[in-house]
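Standup notes
- HV: blocked on the assembly model, inputs below
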Amino acid sequence: MTDHDISLTVNGTDHDLTVESRTLLVHAIRDQLGYTGTNVGCESSTCGACTVHVDGDAVKSCTMLAVQADGTEVDTVEGLAEGGEFHPIQTGFQEEHGLQCGYCTPGMMMTATDFLESNPDPSREEIREGLEGNLCRCTGYQNIVNAVENAAESMSSGAV
Amino acid sequence: CGHGRGGMGEEVKRKEDQRFITGRGNYVDDIKKPGMLHCELVRSPHAHARIENIDKSRALDVDGVVAVLTAEDLLEYDLATMPTLMADTQDVLVNDKVKFQSQEVAAVIATDRYTAKDGAQKVVVDYDVLDPVVDPYDALEDDAPLIRDDIEGQEDNHCLDWETGDREATDRVFDECEVTVKEDMLYQRLHPAPIETCGAVGDYDPGKDKLTVHMTSQAPHIHRTLFAQVSGIPEHKIRIVSPDVGGGFGNKVPIYPGYVVAAAASYVLERPVKWMEERSENIQSTGFARDYHMTGELAATKEGKIRAVRTDVLANHGAYNAVAQPSNFPAGFFNIFTGSYDVETAYGSLTAAYTNTAPGGVAYRCSFRVTEAVYLIERMVKVLADELDMDPAEIRRKNFIQPEQFPYESPTGWNYDSGDYEGALDLALEMADYDHYREEQQRRIDEDADKLLGIGISSFTEIVGAGPGKTCDIAGVEMFDSADIRVHPTGKATVRVGVQTQGQGHETTFAQIVAEELGMNVDDIVVEHGDTDTDPYGLGTYGSRSTPVAGAAAAVAARKVREKAKSIAANELEAAEEDVTWDRQSGEFHVAGAPERSIGITEIAAGAYMNHPSSEEPGLEAVDYYDPPEMTYPFGSYIVVVEVDRETGEVAFEKFVAVDDCGNRINPMVIEGQIHGGLAQGIGTAMLEQVTFDDNGNVTGGDFMNYLLPTSMEIPEFETGYTVTPSPHHPIGAKGVGESPTVGSPPAIVNAVVDAMKHGGITHVEMPMTPDVVWEKLDEAGLAIDPADQ
């Protein structure tokens, strides 16, 4: 198995690491770098619990090789809050009870933040479409839709 | 209720969220220990086969593989088999014959998870393939292959028989009755599929001679006891820790071979060993749900008064009888099947069969087979209503147990605590705009519309909170639960409980119970659970039992603390104890007639440690182990309106109303979330989910590509409502609720789809009601629009 030396920036911190060709990005993030907020829920690229941002785009990190992330900026749930302040999506999830066991939550929030970038004022139906790639077994989605609406509102009111 | 301190009834935001929304939860696979190894299980590709030989040598040659364990290695420690909760024996690693596809055959232990997988690929197992049998009817045929040749005297695939009620009286009513209806229905095999799969980190410390196992466990104390019984390691030298659990849904109640292997491997290798299964392993080998083939019958008068219920069930228990339920209840609480109705008599019989499929049966918000029971009765009431051409709401009203009949003893022996069924139904009908949709339904029929409308009702009664120690036990341990409250000198408190949250919000809601009872602020209380070294012994969280049992224990323990606090308050206030009264509103004690002379928990706690009365011990704490006198019986009425596309068979939800009554409500926000999640699982059940097998015993619905979980797109907006009928025997009048939505909603959904086609003579549609299944029924009823004819 060939090893590769790669460099990537995770949540603003530069990391150099050695990975095998086959190492999945999710395992590089979790096992090698210790960002365990990103989770694994399946092996068929269905559940989205592993969603992170790679150069700003929401990506299922179980379906990308770590070596493909060489030179990229990766953002995970651990990087959402800035300077001790929650990101509006985090506040939204807590305010609206958008999580229970918390296992899908990091991936769900990473998908939602990317989605809100492209659609800052979505309808409920659009939010549901935007989150279709993320499975949740606890919430029945309704409060997650509320959480994303909540975040959209506070993000737009915060914008000048 | 609600004094702004975060007590009973307040929508307190969850304490748990802080760590989960920042990625700081601690789930099993997040755990990393020095020297930790990884375990990958080698699983059987066959459903039924003799193992002729296992060759480890090529696996051991893989760089980084530390060990390969087989049954032979475990036999040395007497760990090759383990007892199930139903007194059967299950293989940990198979010695002689595999009995279902994906069964555990060998374990490869390596330095990382990738290498462990490489090693697993290189274990060569020679199989002599036998004929499998996956269908329970086929399994009971005379010429069926014998699955359990390991059980002495077992000559066929018959697992057990069970019956309930009065057979003769029931048969008599059926013989003399004016109207009888009968329907066969399958509650298909499902899987709870929590998004986090099962896993464990075994860590035997030879220096302390102590085994620590972090595991995805809904019942860590019981698991400790079972580990002790199986391994011979004494219980005080075993510590089970259930950390954050990414959903359980009943999947994490049983002990699985992977847990035992991780613990055994750490014992043998004296290094921590992590086992974390993948999704397909989870669905294919861990506890499934349902798989009841049911025949339902009702006997009634022409006016729709139900007189008797009769049922016969064939249950598929898989290759081992490993159903996770109280020992004395081989069919769980299925005999709640007379439901919300006052009937003269009832009888039920059940046969269970072994098949070449994974073991399980009780899981996925079933409350010990109440899902099946409620499905049976609520489907049958709809069948009867259609037979008599009666409105399904009216026929329920006519048969409901009335509020004044509680406590009500059912014909199968359950003692329902309280209820007002008509109240819940009336509210649901109003919320659903029932009359409007009935008219709309007829209009579409009259106009030969492309999309039919159907309205389904389910008025269910749950039974949760197992249970009274005189009848309910798990592996012999009575089904009590516990709480331990310690108030610290500065007036803050640590509460430890014997239950184990998997997302249901216990860290918040148990603090609310204690806050209410002690006049504390909810933020001044921390709730801990899941560590058998520190928490009081409890039976765990499943069967919606946390609130009924441990919730009761928390209130009773808090009242014990309050009793002592009263004595301290009297000492501090320099008043006689009988002159001191507790004011729930202010959360303080005061001298009778002099409310200005009052004292709250902070001063009382200080007094307990710094100026304790001579009549009392110093300190301020209490423990309660609560043996519930009865179960709690929450109830609800759900109404579902669906649109059925006559061309495609697709079903769309027009309206989804759920009214629940779980007695006094601790945190309405958390209850609402439980309801939403449970309803989504009910929709998954009715519309999408099924574990299937082909004739060779291959699992054909064994991953997320084929076992379909609903996404945000399949789930409609829910409208929830509630009524409040407290449990009279519960210390705070609260009933369990977590499983009600999954118990109650599938029959409402099926009833709605049947209702849309009833004018075509359709009486039943099997789950999951995928478009092809529905289209076949439309076609059978002459209601389908064939695209080819357009």
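- HV (later): unblocked. Helices of chain A lie at 25-32, 88-95, 105-118, 124-130, 142-158. Chain A has five helices and five strands.
- Next: hand off to the docking folks.
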